[in-house]
Automatic annotation (TrEMBL):
<keyword id="KW-0819">tRNA processing</keyword>
<dbReference type="GO" id="GO:0006400">
    <property type="term" value="P:tRNA modification"/>
</dbReference>
<dbReference type="InterPro" id="IPR012795">
    <property type="entry name" value="tRNA_Ile_lys_synt_N"/>
</dbReference>
<feature type="binding site">
    <location>
        <begin position="57"/>
        <end position="62"/>
    </location>
    <ligand>
        <name>ATP</name>
    </ligand>
</feature>
<protein>
    <recommendedName>
        <fullName>tRNA(Ile)-lysidine synthase</fullName>
        <ecNumber>6.3.4.19</ecNumber>
    </recommendedName>
</protein>
<dbReference type="GO" id="GO:0032267">
    <property type="term" value="F:tRNA(Ile)-lysidine synthase activity"/>
</dbReference>
<dbReference type="InterPro" id="IPR011063">
    <property type="entry name" value="TilS/TtcA_N"/>
</dbReference>
<keyword id="KW-0436">Ligase</keyword>
<keyword id="KW-0963">Cytoplasm</keyword>
<comment type="similarity">
    <text>Belongs to the tRNA(Ile)-lysidine synthase family.</text>
</comment>
<dbReference type="InterPro" id="IPR012094">
    <property type="entry name" value="tRNA_Ile_lys_synt"/>
</dbReference>
<dbReference type="GO" id="GO:0005737">
    <property type="term" value="C:cytoplasm"/>
</dbReference>
<keyword id="KW-0547">Nucleotide-binding</keyword>
<feature type="domain" description="tRNA(Ile)-lysidine/2-thiocytidine synthase N-terminal">
    <location>
        <begin position="51"/>
        <end position="225"/>
    </location>
</feature>
<comment type="function">
    <text>Ligates lysine onto the cytidine present at position 34 of the AUA codon-specific tRNA(Ile) that contains the anticodon CAU, in an ATP-dependent manner. Cytidine is converted to lysidine, thus changing the amino acid specificity of the tRNA from methionine to isoleucine.</text>
</comment>
<feature type="domain" description="tRNA(Ile)-lysidine synthase substrate-binding">
    <location>
        <begin position="281"/>
        <end position="348"/>
    </location>
</feature>
<dbReference type="Pfam" id="PF01171">
    <property type="entry name" value="ATP_bind_3"/>
</dbReference>
Length: 356
């Protein structure tokens, strides 16, 4: 861990106050957090304070979040339990996790440390670690009966996500970045800058861990972070804030288009005579590209095709076949995993290919 005076009870400073407010607002913005609006006496009487799992790595963002949640926990505004996932990717990671546990204990919050084994595989080391981490967090949430898992993603993380999406040539959904909520994941700090979490830790003398992976240029996100800082310095523009705003705008559009597409898909596949693995072409050909691509992707996902097998180019190929093959002889689009979509005269059919 980097410089700090050791763990101690949080004191009020502007940065820490802003983080506490962000946690309160995030919880009150959702039905499960409505209890936060009640008076303290009413919460004590009804024991209705929302229960949350706080994801903590030992870095400044998550320690600032834990500090805020510990303060609200002691006030009875929520019931917090911290979970620290030790990925074992850095020397001394177990000691870092134990220091997190000790600090949380001093603040009155119980902490569970879970060690996981991570191997890169096809998805890469970062993605594998993320998958393992969220699996542990969701398991802890279910076992404890908590309403939410709180993560410490900031506006900087959001900007990095959008920039990576832009570099990949991604569509609206990817450029929407991280939503404030995803399932049972709640991101209360998404509207705050990383500088604020660092200021909160400095003001309170909280010791934080500087993960060496955050400085390893082998990872695309680290390179994106460096590029963002350089662009802001050279262009003199608030690019981090601007990219985060782009995410908000794209998310509103993507949510609307996804909802529209799901409604169309339900109409096309919800008839009693329609098999789940088939869909009529007549209703597809009249759709705009933005809706057609979403309908086809959602249909294939519902049939168990992995999302990583449904890139933009493959969906665009399927859209072209749908528009050009109406009334013509059958053709097919091969998918990974020995599956394919057969485009016939009047319908689509998804099937598994028999491999000799």
């Amino acid at each position: 861990m980097s410089t700090g005076e050791g763990a101690r009870r949080p004191t009020l400073d502007p940065a820490s106050a802003a983080i506490r407010t962000a946690v309160r607002e995030a919880l009150t913005a959702h039905p499960d957090g409505a209890a936060c609006r009640a008076s303290r006496a009413a919460r004590a009487a009804s024991r209705s304070a929302p229960q949350v799992i706080v994801a903590v790595s030992g870095g400044a963002d998550s320690m600032a979040l834990l500090s805020a949640c510990a303060f609200l926990h002691r006030r009875g505004e929520l019931r917090a339990r911290a979970v620290c996932v030790d990925h074992g990717l850095q020397p001394g990671s177990a000691e870092v996790a134990e220091r997190v546990r000790a600090t949380a204990s001093e603040w009155g919050v119980d902490t569970e440390v879970v060690a996981v084994e991570v191997t890169g595989g096809l998805e890469g080391l970062e993605a594998a670690a993320r998958t393992a981490r969220y699996r542990v967090l969701e398991d802890a949430r279910r076992r404890s009966g908590a309403s939410w898992v709180l993560t410490a993603h900031t506006r900087n993380d959001q900007a990095e996500t959008v920039l990576l999406g832009l570099l990949r040539g991604s569509g609206t959904r990817s450029l929407a970045g991280m939503a404030p909520t995803t399932g049972r994941i709640l991101r209360p700090l998404l509207g705050l800058d990383r500088a604020l979490t660092e200021a909160s830790c400095r003001a309170q003398g909280i010791a934080v861990w500087d993960d060496p992976m955050n400085a390893d240029a082998a990872f695309a996100r680290v390179r994106a972070r460096t590029l963002l800082a350089r662009l802001e310095a050279e262009l003199g523009q608030p690019i981090t804030a601007n990219l985060a705003r782009t995410a908000d705008l794209c998310r509103a559009d993507a949510d609307c288009l996804d909802e529209w597409a799901e409604s169309v898909l339900e109409q096309l596949t919800g008839r009693a005579e329609t098999r789940p693995d088939e869909m009529g072409l007549a209703g597809l050909g009249v759709l705009d590209d933005a809706i057609l691509s979403r309908v086809l992707r959602s249909w294939l996902l519902s049939l168990g095709v992995p999302a990583q097998n449904l890139g933009a180019e493959r969906i665009a190929d399927l859209c072209r076949l749908v528009r050009t093959r109406v009334g013509r002889g059958p053709t097919r689009l091969s998918l990974p995993g020995d599956t394919e979509v057969v485009v016939g005269r009047d319908r689509l059919r998804f099937r598994t290919v028999d491999v000799p």
